[in-house]
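Human: If only I could read backbone structure tokens as easily as an amino acid sequence. Underneath my words sits a plain record pairing an amino acid chain with its backbone structure tokens. Take your time, and here it is.
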Amino acid sequence: MYVAYECHYVQPKSVESYLSGICNQLEMCHPEVHALRRHPLVTRTLAGCKKLFSKPTQRKAALTVDNLEHAAAQLTQSYDDKLFLAMLYTGFFGLHRLAELTDHDKPAFRSYRKTIMRATVRIEGDAYTYLLPGHKADRFYEGNTVRITRQQRGPDPYAVFSGYVAARDQSRNALHPALWVNAGGDVPTRSWFTTRLKRLFPDATIGGHSMRPGGATFYAVDGMPGEYIQVLGRWSSDAFQMYIRKHPVVLHALLQARREENAGQHRA
């Protein structure tokens, strides 16, 4: 009854999460709660509600190379603009989630365990690297080293990132432990980033989550195999397969690259 009632007011997917939370709170006093959660009456009611009340997920459009060039042309040489552009380029070419580059808007949910540190940055001749200390798929906080290479044509993340780091290390933020620090001396929040993104792209289909599918599409069009994109984006196998199903533009780019590769082999 609770499931049927709630599905009239909130999305069935959210109701499913609520049920999990209820089970988590009650299991110590009522060990049978999980069995009740799996009862056919509950599962079938929830399945029916999904069919009746679910709405399609509104996904953000993928950023493009043209969007990056537009951002570079519109922004100034101020410190915060250099910071924002470096985050945008790094998020795109590093296949980052927005939460991996920014702090949560609510201080209670912030953690330095997830913050990229300046001390981990290495700028080489043709690439830069840094340690991503924790992310959604990293259950044990082992971290991943992210490496972003110089682009010979089109927008170059190497030049943008190097410019920001030089400005940062010459500012009053030079001794700040975090890599991304704004002019006020704080790690940028999600709202700080998305507010600036909206100024550049008023289109409601572009948001903070547009960087990740944009970068994946870029690499797919460039001919990178899907398994390499999966590793670069730190996806598990199942998560990546689900991701490309939900982002058909990435799947299309992968298929197009595969067709061109096969055509080249036949000509050879």
Observations:
- The first helix runs from residue 2 to 6.
- Residues 2-53 form one domain.
- The beta strands are 122-123, 127-132, 144-149.
